[in-house]
Amino acid sequence: MMMIRTAFSALALTLATPALAQEVWISNERDNTISIIDVPSMEVVETIKVGARPRGLMFSHDHKVAYLCASDDSTIQVIDVETREILHNLPSGENPETFALHPDNRHIWISNEDDNITSVLDVEQRVIVAQIPVGVEPEGKAINRAGTIAITTSETTNMAHWIDTETFEIFHNSLVGSRPRHAEFTSDDKRLFVSAEIGGGLHVFDTETREELAEIRFEIPDVHPHDVQPVGFKLTEDMRRVYVALGPANRVAVVDAQTYEVLGYHMVGRRVWHMAMSEDETKLFTTNGVSGDVTIIDLVRDEPVKTVKVGRFPWGAAYRPADS
Amino acid sequence: MRYHQTLLTSLVASVMASPVAASIDVPIAYLERAVERPPVLTNLDPIPDDLGRMGAQLGLADNATTGGFMGHNYTLSAQVVGLDEDWLEAARAVLAEYRILVVHAPAEDLLALADLPEAEDALIFNASAEAEALREEACRANLLHTMPSFAMRADALMQFLVSKRWTDLVMITGQRPADQDFAAALRNSATKFGARIRAERAWDNSSDMRRNIGQEFPLFTQDFPSHHVMLVADEAGDFGPYLEFNAWEPRPVAGSAGARPDAWSDRVEAYGAAQLQLRFKRLADRPMGALDYAAWAAVRSVGEAVTRINAADAGAIRDYILGDDFELAAFKGAAVTFRDWNGQMRQPMPVATRTSLVAMTPMPGFLHQVSTLDTLGRDRPETACTAFDQKD
Fold it and tell me: Given B212, B245, B261, which residue is the final one in a domain?
């Protein structure tokens, strides 16, 4: 393993690109593994065995460790990015599905799917410091850059709950379309995006007033509206684009995040769930649950360039930059 | 579409503009008619006596969580009317207190309840009866149906068989009315989707299959013409479960036994269903069945409507549920909605064996100009229901 990476590093140096061990990690829900894709070669270079039903996956802000929701083991696993070893398991509450890391790099906000609870974990003390009752089947998690607001979406309650990160209290609830799955703030914290899987739309809220600014809808020729189910999405840093995974429509929508106009669609694998984006925002990696692969979309050429076979039911995706 | 969005947005805005709105009470009654269960060949699978009721309870719990954030107070009162009790008297007593009812009762009792003067402006959900007539010539404006009809179940199975090109069928039918009704629906579906029931036989149920299963069924099925699949209409699960592996020909069994189309199966796990199954199991300590699902869907439909319109009036809930904006995420892959011409909930339906999911219908390729879910059951142009104000 070391050898392969060294080889790539040398290659990268000669090409004078910043590509040093850029990786995308993929959690495979039905295989209890993580597939590691080397970005330059676009190949799976390693598969790590992890806990049961791995779903939510992210790196710490310093990219030293990866955090993984091992849902059926009711734990969050901490994985060393260099050695690929599981360092320890963290308490997570029952059945953690997704999470978000506070800007303080210390507190993880977790959705406990089966208990209607959002748990707040201190990764240093390794204890749950707060549990907040939310709606039925909490899922999407987001924390603004200022670190003041945490969002939990509840799939069966059809709400985005706005939680004050200081007081741990819900200070607002926004009704959205059916089965809200994912939430993200824009990089300036001014807007919140929430996808509704069964509702079929992407809702945009003003963070300050919490008024709904827009609901973005998707109409794809020859795809039945039933099958247009927005799940994961990614906003670019410059807030110009949002890429939306549309589930069984097997497409990723490209949307202008300013005008909310749908600019086009990329064909990907079957039942696309979530995505990771490279740091330079030139590549997008989609997890295609049913086909068990990852589609790599080149955002400069504006087309999918490769499909990479991973484990069964790839779910989460996280990007690890070169200089970490 | 645009209109739809604007409306929703303004609704959301108005709800949010009044975060401390006065609380709204939403009382729901679950009313069940006890029935005499026919004896079946095996005693190994006792029928839980809280079928349906536990689904309503789960729906209540789901609603209550959302209601907690909205200031909506859901309550559920469950009542079982015994065999020797007066059904209509009990129904009147419930209607005196409740305007929203979820009913688990045979078709004729349901109809008698819906026709009571006290029920005129009530909203009644049929969460159990599968009879076609309730949705057609005998439909009632105050009666919605979350349980699929026999026709919907038959269509679901037939779509699956036709998509496999297993179109040569034979059928064995039991003696009870439900068996006859399901068999009739299967015949219609075969015609509708281009399959062929090449021969039929009635099972008179006069011997004990536990003892001579290996002698009876081979002879009984020996002179069937060649076929791909053996259909069985045996809704009580009396002899059907014994057919597989004991017929003359080695063919799969489908219908009431074998691969069974239904509103729900405890084998469904995609579409977030694993969570629903788990929540149910925690509550009821048993798997979720079709009756539970239909009752859950009824209570959840009320909850979804109250959440969106911020009102608990039965008429307003009915209008919203039958309108264009209603949709319920119901763990079957596509939102469920209600047919505005007869109040039937349109829904995907699993075809499943006792061990695994076979298919989720409607099957790909069965197209429809409005909703593919309307390929299951009788469609708007064919309806005999006139009690609903239909749109053009």
Answer: B261
Give the ipTM of the model, two decimals please.
0.81
| Calpha distance B182→B153 (Å, rounded) | 9
CATH of the domain at A233: 2.130.10.10
- A137 CB neighbours in chain B (<8 A) are 272, 275
Residue of B275, B279, B326 to mutate when probing chain A, most A C-beta within 10 A: B275
Nearest-Cα residue of chain B relative to residue A174: B16
Structural domain range at position A11: 2-320
Chain A residues in contact with B3 by the CB 8 A cut-off are none
Which CATH number covers residue B177? 3.40.50.2300
**Are the beta carbons of B372 and A226 separated by less than 8 Å?**
yes
Q: By residue range, what is the domain housing residue B342?
A: 2-148+265-350+370-382
For the segment B356-385, what is each residue's pLDDT rounded down to a tens digit?
999 999 999 999 988 999 999 999 999 999
- Exposure letters B150-167 (e unless 16+ CB within 10 A, then b): bbbbbbbbbbbbbbeebb
Cβ-Cβ contacts under 8 Å between A and B: the total is: 83
pLDDT in tens, B155-200: 999 999 999 999 999 999 999 999 999 999 999 999 999 999 999 9
Residues of chain B contacting residue A158, judged by C-beta atoms under 8 Å apart: 66, 304, 307, 329
Query: By the CB < 8 Å criterion, does A180 face chain B?
Result: no
Residue A198 forms contact with B (CB below 8 Å): yes
Verify whether the Cβ–Cβ distance A155 to B329 is below 8 Å: yes
Shared-domain flag, residues B10 and B124: yes
Residue A324, pLDDT score: 61
Looking at the fold, whether B204 and B270 belong to one and the same domain comes out as no
**Residue whose C-alpha is closest to residue A133's, from A152, A147, A155:** A152
Residues of B in contact with A211 (CB under 8 A): 13, 16
Give the separation between CA B187 and CA A168, rounded to whole angstroms: 60
Tell me what pLDDT residue B211 has. 63
**Nearest C-alpha of chain B: how many angstroms from A211?**
7
- From B283, B292, B296, select the one nearest B52 (Cα to Cα): B292
Mean pLDDT, to the nearest integer, of A77-101?
Answer: 95
In this model, does residue B15 exceed pLDDT 50?
no
For residues A203 and A212, the answer to whether their CB atoms sit within 8 Å is: yes
Q: Which residues pair with B144 in a beta bridge?
A: B125
B300 vs A221, more confident: B300
| One domain for residues B282 and B255 | no
Identity of the residue in B5, B279, B329 whose CB atom sits nearest the CB atom of A198 = B329
Backbone angles phi, psi at B374, to 5 degrees: -85, 5
Q: Is the pLDDT of residue B205 over 90?
A: no
Q: Which residues of A touch B366 (CB under 8 A)?
A: none
**Rounded Cα distance, A243 and A226, in Å:** 20
Q: Do A135 and B65 touch (CB under 8 A)?
A: yes
Residue A53, pLDDT > 70, answer yes
* Helix H or strand E encompassing A317: strand A314-320
Give pLDDT, residue A290: 95
Given this model, what pLDDT does residue B19 score?
Answer: 46
Residue B84 and residue B230 in one domain: no
- Is it true that the peptide bond before B38 is cis, omega within 30 degrees of 0? no
Tokens of B279: 């929540």
Comparing CB atoms, the residue among B1, B69, B329 nearest residue A179 is: B329
**Assigned domain for B170 exists:** yes
State whether B123 and B257 are in the same domain: no
Could you tell me which residues of chain B have a Cβ less than 8 Å from any Cβ in chain A?
Answer: 1, 5, 8-9, 12-13, 15-16, 19, 62, 65-66, 69-70, 272, 275, 278-279, 304, 307-308, 327-329, 333-335, 371-373
A322 pLDDT band, cuts 50/70/90, is confident
